[in-house]
Design brief:
Number of domains: 1
Largest sheet: 2 strands, antiparallel
Helix content: 10-25%
Radius of gyration: 11 Å
Strand content: 25-35%
CATH architecture: 2-Layer Sandwich
CATH topology: Alpha-Beta Plaits
Number of strands: 4
CATH class: Alpha Beta
Shape: globular
Structural class: alpha+beta
Low-confidence stretches: none
Distance between the termini: 10 Å
Bound molecules: iron/sulfur cluster
Order of helices and strands: EHEEHE
Length: 69
């Protein structure tokens, strides 16, 4: 199953913990809002993606699975 990292822009406080910790998965735009780089998340980076989801103090990040069609 594919894993997708998502950002809830309304919940995000923009302090950059996620893109500081996992710059290969998340970058930021000119406003400082996180932008997901890896979609779907490569299998080898799913553990890292879980860590950034857990580290977000605003619970703005989520890892969602999609079923193969
Ligand atoms: S760690 Fe969470 S609140 Fe902070 S910039 Fe990333 S998504 Fe936003």
């Amino acid at each position: 199953m594919e894993q997708h990292l998502t950002v809830d822009r309304k919940a995000c406080a923009g302090h950059g913990l996620c893109y500081g910790a996992a710059p290969d998965l998340v970058d930021c735009d000119e406003q400082g809002d996180p932008v997901v780089l890896a979609d779907p998340v490569p299998e080898a980076q799913v553990g890292e993606a879980r860590q950034v989801v857990d580290m977000c103090p605003e619970r703005a990040l989520a890892l969602e699975q999609t079923q193969p069609v």
